[in-house]
């Protein structure tokens, strides 16, 4: 072997090594509690580079079957999640739970259509998807191009109003619907066996909370969630190892200040534009994606609180 051919071989080996590492980390899941596996989404908006893989999604394995909790932003991501499940267990998927209507949590559903699973969501999810689905799909195709191919809305076949229990065999999941908060169709999943609470987008860590429902309702929900004392929590966005309850307290503080400052602006007679320009400007360094969502949050809070008596 000449020096140059040796070098070429070394470069080739190094490339293979990095490609392998990349393939392995492309759709990683980690077991954050016994039987609870989470894939950590990118802390970003959907882009062609991240393929819409921006939410934390995952699954829980029982003795009889598997429950999926959110399926990701595209059919392709749903298929990756399904492959990750198959790498862990041959058990069938019996439930595909959507924590709420947003595109980054639902558009992988199609990957589980031939599993004979029940699709599970809030009693308010079907109507929300019917109202917004076409727009979501158009936006997805515009933002992601070919990466969105085949993605579709798969509405729930089993809806929850209040609470419900799902049996995975030796493992019971308790589902809860909540007051309108992040959206009007938020649902949480609690795995009693491991004390793991999957909060969907009722919890944002590091990434700015997005108000697409009610800031007042969200604050009420947070007060109740804090009493649940989970051993592990899974946020819809952000790191999986953030300290509890500090993580939800940071979100609570942001929302409480948003409500307080918007109420004060309304009381002063500020216009919505004036409120957008002044409220929460000191929060900018505290949250990822502040520039994308904060002004929308002020607008949403203003529209909600304007009618408060
Ligand atoms: Zn969401």
From TrEMBL:
Keyword terms, alphabetized: Signal
Fetch the CDD domains from UniProt: metallo-hydrolase-like_MBL-fold (cd16282)
Q: Which InterPro entries match?
A: Metallo-B-lactamas (IPR001279), NDM-1-like (IPR050855), RibonucZ/Hydroxyglut_hydro (IPR036866), SoxH-rel_PQQ_2 (IPR030829)
Could you tell me which SUPFAM superfamilies the record lists for this protein? Metallo-hydrolase/oxidoreductase
Residues annotated as coiled-coil are none
Q: Please give the biological process terms from Gene Ontology that the record holds.
A: antibiotic catabolic process
KW Glycosyltransferase (keyword) present: no
Metallo-beta-lactamase domain residues: 54-237
The cross-references to Pfam families, in alphabetical order and at most eight, read:
Lactamase_B
Domain of life (superkingdom): Bacteria
Q: Which residues form the signal peptide?
A: 1-23
TM ranges:
none
Family under the similarity heading: Belongs to the metallo-beta-lactamase superfamily. Class-B beta-lactamase family.
Q: What is this protein called?
A: Beta-lactamase
């Amino acid at each position: 072997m000449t020096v140059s051919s040796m070098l070429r071989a070394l470069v080739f080996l190094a490339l293979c090594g990095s490609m392998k590492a990349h393939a392995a980390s492309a759709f990683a899941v980690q077991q954050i509690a016994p039987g609870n596996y989470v894939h950590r989404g990118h802390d970003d908006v959907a882009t062609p580079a991240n393929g819409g893989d921006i939410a934390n999604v995952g699954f829980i394995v029982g003795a009889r079957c598997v429950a999926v909790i959110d399926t990701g932003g595209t059919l392709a991501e749903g298929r990756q999640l399904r492959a990750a499940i198959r790498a862990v267990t041959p058990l069938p998927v019996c439930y595909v739970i959507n924590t709420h209507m947003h595109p980054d949590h639902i558009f992988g559903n199609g990957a589980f259509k031939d599993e004979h699973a029940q699709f599970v969501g809030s009693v308010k999810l079907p109507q929300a998807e019917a109202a917004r689905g076409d727009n979501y799909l158009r936006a997805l195709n515009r933002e992601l191009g070919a990466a969105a191919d085949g993605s579709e809305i798969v509405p729930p076949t089993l809806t929850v109003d209040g609470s419900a229990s799902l049996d995975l065999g030796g493992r019971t999941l308790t589902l809860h619907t909540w007051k309108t908060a992040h959206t009007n169709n938020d649902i949480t999943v609690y795995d009693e066996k491991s004390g793991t609470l999957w909060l969907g987008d009722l919890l944002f860590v590091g990434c700015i909370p997005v108000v697409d429902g009610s800031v007042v309702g969200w604050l009420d929900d947070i007060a109740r969630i804090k009493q649940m004392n989970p051993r592990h929590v899974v946020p819809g966005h952000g790191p999986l190892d953030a300290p509890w309850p500090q993580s939800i307290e940071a979100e609570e503080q942001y929302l409480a200040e948003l409500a307080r400052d918007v109420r004060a602006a309304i009381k002063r007679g500020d216009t919505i534009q004036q409120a957008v320009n002044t409220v929460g400007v000191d929060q900018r360094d505290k949250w990822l994606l502040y520039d994308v969502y904060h002004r929308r949050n002020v607008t949403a809070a203003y529209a909600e609180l304007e009618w408060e008596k």
